[in-house]
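U., I forgot to send this yesterday:
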Amino acid sequence: MISRQIKIIFLGILIGIGIQACKGSSSGPEPEPPVEVPTTGVVEVIVKTSGMDQDRDGYIVNIDLQKTLGSSTNDTLLFVDVEQGNHQLELEDLDNECSLPAANPQDISVVAQDTTQATIEVQCEQVILKNKIVYRHCDGICDGLYIMNSDGTDRVQLTSHSWDSDPIISPDGTKVAFVNGRRNPEVSEHHNEIYIVDASGYPITRIPRPAESLHDSDPSWSPDGKKLIFSQSNNNSNGNDIVSVNVDGTGRKKVNDDRPYDSWPLYTPDGSKIVFYSLNRGGNSQIFIMNADGTNVTQLSDHDFFAHHLAMSNDGSMLAFEVQGDPQRIYVMNIDGTGTRPLTNDTNSNAWASWSPDGSQLIYYNFDTTDIFKINVDGTGLTNITNTPGIDETDPYWSPVK
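Result:
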């Protein structure tokens, strides 16, 4: 009896196992995975820039300081896979002359599977070189023109060609004229030509040089900034002529062409006269003044040394120039030729004087230290404003704009 019960229990177990096996082998549908709901969207950013001197290097735009894209001055950017929710949109790498009228960063809200649009507006003002100094920078090799504050701080590169030299800032501080003999790809030989660059560093335009000119050099501005006056070295070996030209390169004409070597012309503040030096009028290199049309040439100086590279104070009352010797020194004199005296008396050779906007100081280049120095017009207060051993900073010019 007991054994029969055992058999019945065993049989029940086998049947149960069989039923479970049949259930496990069922071919019913698999359960579907959970549906993923998108959580990201797209941000379209429109960058607009207005104004005179736009930042040619462009900007950097970021979202939450993480997603980052480069932008030109006028551009449309797409940020993809931005998580839904609130974010901050920011524009960076802005020039000092440019500003953002709206909040920066600005708040944006991103909706999943949607495009959020945002606009960043930039306004740029014209760059004016107020109380700045432009100079030629050489660190082993020359790499163009630089601009700095009058105390030697905050140095910024203006141009990048190794042969850019002789810079001079326009009366309104918005442009710089300079000389280069290697920029023009159409000329295989070295011929100095005059260029004009905006104070922002762009664009750069060339003043056309006629075939009769071997070199165009020593540029200076007319008081209204509409013309340049400079010396033209002639191909026919007849020395230098003084030439004027409109800043767009038109209207080129000789002011005088009667002497073998007239150079370093400067307009007086009212534009009615031109001061220059000549190598063969009156012996040595004397300083002269004439009407702006080349008439009524009058000798100002009567010295027994070789002087060149003239610089006029902004009020037109005084001149500074170099006197060659050992050492070479900076001299000053009144515009009528009186009061000639040395400004520098050290043992170093000095050159390339330029006046401060108010006429109370001058800067110049020291050949021995290769630095730029500042000095009061009475000879006191001598200061090395660059003080960079191993780096050559030459051809300094102090902006006439205070």
